[in-house]
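Table 4 source record.
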Amino acid sequence: MMEEEEGPKRKKVVEAQVLDRVGEVISGIKKAKHVDQVICSLHSLAILLFPLDSSLLSGSIDERYRNQILSAKVPSSDERNEWWQAFYRGTGFPAMARVLLREVASNWLACFPISARRHVYDAFLVNGLMTEVVQTLVPCLQPTGTDGLDVQSVRSNTERLIILCLLENDGVVQMAREFGSSCQTEDSGDEHFKTTVSMVAQVVSSIPDKAQMGAPVSLSSHLFFRQITIQLLSLAEERNLNLVNGGAIFNKSEMDSTFLFVGEIFSRICRRGSADVLVNEIVRRVLRLVQSILSSNDYSLVADVIGSNPASQFWLNMMLSIKDSYAVERMSEKFLHELATQRVSDVEAYWILWLLFCRNFAHQASFRAMFVDKFLFWKVFPVCCLRWILHFALLERPPDVNLIPKGHTNHNFLETLQHLVSVWSKREFVQSATTEQQICILFSLSY
């Protein structure tokens, strides 16, 4: 019982110590008359949070302050972890970040030696809890209450830190891992947790819109969304490598929390008009996986092989994690067009669609209706895409004459065929539909 009470008591003590030190550091920065005084103040906190070699700073500051830095007490690893948790999960980080991103960026950062900027300034953002860091960084792209601030310096520094934290240090995939690990303390089905995930995804996806004119090209929509897509898709390889090498097995709750964030990010990429960037990266990876499976397995066993292959698990769950129906539809359309552009074979296309959409198709009536009704009747696709839709959504079998279709798929096909005939026979459809739509219907009837 004493141990149970000691934990919360110790936590409160550390939280109070952290806030006291943050207050001292902020006060020291506001009173500073020389840049080395600012560096010393930041160092006094940084050394309590990060494994910092103080000698890296000693050569870049005046001798008057060198001894203060070199004589600072270095905490143990456990003590440092306690401080880190209390700082980033409490109110210390938001208070400190406001001063770092506004006053220090505006008045002092240009005078920092490179080593000091890296170890006692950037470190507070790069080495932090990324889900908290991004919520603090992004608003500074459009700072408010700017009296006395060098707004241009604040904005350009924020852009630099976003590139450093999110792109160069894979901050977005770090967020996915943080949400995954948070399943130990929060339920991924909890509405508060879902709201937090959605809010963070919204903040990340808003970055290209909030970046100022003349911002680095890496913050443009195309390049930024491509880079964070690559990061999140790397989770597929990461999880596969862990499973193949006998590493950690990711439990369902952790996977659900991670996929919740992935789905939210991908939905917002689609909403912001960059579905093609997302789909292009996915198709390249999935096509490579499917070609590998097809080259070494009998076609009749492919579904079983995909289902049991560790490399398939990310893709089997990815589309199911996207709850935004608009995003699902846009991605599905883009997938079909991209596969046509890549000139994949009918068999490859079928298994790619199966890998990405089989679970949506099995569990979501609205998804089945989208493929069968909307894509066949109202969308215009290349002829090859129509073949793939018919095989995947109606016949539910790959285009191989040696495979006998199931009875219920014949029934579904006949129902859809009757619907096609009904639509085609209506005078208003013939009069109002485009020539391309009429060709699509005619192909479906003749297939």
